[in-house]
Amino acid sequence: MAVSVAAAAGRLRRAIRRTPQWRGPSRRALSSEAPPTQAAAVRDAFLSFFRDRHGHRLVPSASVRPRGDPSLLFVNAGMNQFKPIFLGTVDPRSEMAGFRRVANSQKCVRAGGRHSDLEDVGRDLSHHTFFEMLGNWAFRGVYFKEEACSMAWELLTQVYGIPEDRLWVSYFGGDPKAGLGPDLESRDIWLKLGVPASRMLSFGPQENFWEMGDTGPCGPCTEIHYDLAGGVGAPQLVELWNLVFMQHNSPPGPSPIPLCHLSVCLIPVILWGASPCIPFLAREKDGSLQPLPQRHVDTGMGLERLLAVLQGRRSTYDTDLFSPLLNAIHQGCGAPPYSGRVGAADEGHTDTAYRVVADHIRTLSICIADGVSPGMSGAPGCWGLIWALNPSRLVLRRLLRRAVRFSTELLRAPPGFLGSLVPVVVETLGGAYPELQRNSAQIASLVSEDEAAFLASLQQGRRIIERTVRRLGPSDVFPAEVAWSLSLSGNLGLPLDLVKLMLEEKGVQLDSAGLERLAQEEAQHRAQQAEPVQEQGLRLDVHALGALQRQGVPPTDDSPKYNYSLRPSGGYEFGTCEAQVLQLYTEDGTAVASVGEGQRCGLLLDKTNFYAEQGGQASDRGYLVRVGLQDVLFPVARAQVCGGFILHEVAAPECLKVGDQVQLHVDEAWRLSCMEKHTAVHLLNWALRQALGPGTEQRGSHLNPEWLRFDVATQAPLTPEQLRAVEGTVQKAVGQDEAVYMEEVALARTAHVPGLRSLDEVYPDPVRVVSVGVPVAQALNPASQAALQTSVELCCGTHLLRTGAIGDLVIIGERQLAKGTTRLLAITGEQAQQAREVGQSLAQEVEAAAARLSQGSRDVVEAQRLSKEMGRLIDAVDTAVMPQWQRRELQATLKALRRRANTAVRKLEMGQAAQKTQELLQQHSEGPLIVDTVYAESLSVLVKVVRQLCKQAPSTSVLLLSPQPLGQVLCACQVAQSATPAFTAEAWALAVCSHMGGKAWGSRVVAQGTGSTADLDAALSTARAYALNKL
């Protein structure tokens, strides 16, 4: 809890007075009881100021994991959790609906997606992937610009004690193209607060106009900057506080331009942003700006950079938020002390490594505490749906692996070092974010486990890079194929940006064009997997198989594919397999004794641990190495069964020949995800029988690491209730974490077992039986009836050893293939959980929209906004990755809600049109022509007014103009039947709208259009003149 503002301010000043200058690492113990840090004092002073002096409600930070918001990779701004208020979609019955004055310190992560600082971290002294955003908000106009600006000024100058002469301000200078004038109100407020005009700057929309997205709430902003130069020479301005006044609804706008192009040096460092309260605007899809019905204030200030200003530092890494970490890194490594160097001055990139490790361990700790853990080891390169659903895990894995590389290679850290830094993060941030303290042991364990798993890959990757570089000529680029095989999209799981960085340090350029080509090929392969077809890869034809049989080559022993086990920690351990090359084939199927560098070939071994595609399960992928030459990877794209032989499709970076001894490594993450999906298929099959009856038959299935597809015979489409029941049955089995038993038995033993599931196909003898929760021997006992109570199937696939690793299963798609056959699409694990969160979020939005609709609309604009909201929700529900049962329910609800909303719009528009019609008829005597202006809230209302006028005065031709905010003018007209064909409505509207620089459309009788003009009288004169000439 924040202390009183007076106490916090006093403690803050005392803490600032005792701050020593940064002179290098201290010898303080890594974890000890210590007085509150300056950061804590600054944070407390902010929260106390807004709570005690200005009556704000303190709300906790939202999780950095966005709940049900697929548009965000991580929460990256303080306003994210309040988006429903800004968008007008907040449930009127929710706690948030009552928010008026709010303040908090929000955890923010910018590491991937549209707003990412990852590539810059370490290279300079200010960028971070995790930062704290101090913010205050005022919703629904509870206070406006004057209060927001004065609060900011009071806090900075009186509480934090920043000298007024070091502060500059900027404000919105207007945008003539959008019809927006300068924000003179903000300028005058700053002048009134004592800011001289000489320290005020005016900028256009690129610098001082804030937009939440391509469409939606937006508005001008005013910013407070701090002068680092202190009046010595040219000002060097750091942005401290950005005050945004949302008053419009917005189109895609240009990216903000760094302020460094100005005559004063404006360093683009955001410390505090606040949204001044001009009436909000919203940008519509057509790019127009419309006023919002309610105004809000949205502020945000980066704590790390505020500290740098208050403590007199040029770098955020020199503040007390980072110095304990930098000290701990120095104590735990063999590197020299941190000295704050950048660029060429940072010899050996030591200080860069300090900053990367300190930043990344903070981000990892915060994210893991909030339930986002690093992705599994292995290669997610073609996991399109997994990336689309849960890319945050993969971003965290990238962060952790970058930190491992920088700490071990540049700082000479010992194994397990990163996990030892977690207590330091908890000590510095745990007081503000108690979830760090609650989860500290889990955080350290996860970090250490992934660090250990990656170290071997990093060392092998380094050797491969060094060996490849030695073979390059002076002007050669590093081969894209080698980089790809090293990366997260290949085999070893090194982040591609890390591979690039390692090459940069050696002065070697990467083949970027080749990488782009490989990425495109991967995308094409991913698209093909959406509806799997038989791939035309390398195969053994009847002649090749006959030759092998004549040579007495035995079928491939693929039993090692089942050699995996559960570790005590719950992870899976997959064994490697050593084998001998028996035969090589070129791409046209010719048997050869060897293949050379760069060739794609088929590889036949005496044994393999690769799963070859069969039974609906996708083939394994991975790599092999020659025994004794571990630094050359031979990527294996897939394996397939050909007449009892397993053919591996391999890309050979070097020579490979018959007789070579090789070691095979499956892609563990790929295999494990396939195992999850395959066991889930069995549970889904059993759950469908439970829901639809024992006669339900499987018609086929296919699975890969991204999703599973299941075809089932049905007499009618599944109802939402049946889909939900099926998911519930699977969830129950997953929650019980039942053992999965697998055993080979004589085929005859399976012939008469009640409930045993098998497909109409030929099975080998002996056959493999997979039983969930019941040992195979018991399941096959006809007297036990066990196979009727659980999933028991004949299957040669690879499966989990316990069901709990599935995590969850969500059916996200359903369609009829043919009469009597339904195809289901499902996902598992964290992807399924996120799909549920998306579904829950959309359900809450629909419920909130229904509540607002039930309250009724007082005017046309509000009713139209509700109608548009229904349309947006319908599109969102139709396309979202969410439970199918929930999609069907929400679609039915929204269909009814949209009918109600549209009916309400029509009634209000007709009522408004009738009122304006009577007013105009009273103003105009009977005659052949009515040309006038009238305010209408939409073009639809204006057309209705014109139609009603012509209905009540059939011999009169009518043209009406309606001026709108921001200079736009609406136009609608109708021509009396007696005046056509010489006089047409379309030509009339076109003449008037062209005069206003706009456009028109319609028919000979009725037309409409839009334009923009400040001289309505001239437009009306044009309309009258054209009509009188035709009449």
Automatic annotation (TrEMBL):
It is found in: Mitochondrion. InterPro entries: aa-tRNA-synth_II/BPL/LPL (IPR045864), Ala-tRNA-lgiase_IIc (IPR002318), Ala-tRNA-ligase_IIc_anticod-bd (IPR018162), Ala-tRNA-synth_IIc_core (IPR018165), Ala-tRNA-synth_IIc_N (IPR018164), Ala-tRNA_ligase (IPR050058), Ala_tRNA_ligase_euk/bac (IPR023033), Thr/Ala-tRNA-synth_IIc_edit (IPR018163). Its cofactor is Zn(2+). One of its GO terms (molecular function) is aminoacyl-tRNA deacylase activity. Zn(2+) binds at residues 678, 682, 795, 799. One of its GO terms (biological process) is alanyl-tRNA aminoacylation. It catalyses: tRNA(Ala) + L-alanine + ATP = L-alanyl-tRNA(Ala) + AMP + diphosphate. Gene3D superfamilies: 2.40.30.130, 3.10.310.40, Bira Bifunctional Protein, Domain 2, Threonyl-trna Synthetase, Chain A, domain 2. Its main location: mitochondrion. PANTHER family: ALANINE--TRNA LIGASE, MITOCHONDRIAL, ALANYL-TRNA SYNTHETASE. This is Alanine--tRNA ligase. It comes from Tursiops truncatus (Atlantic bottle-nosed dolphin). The gene is AARS2.
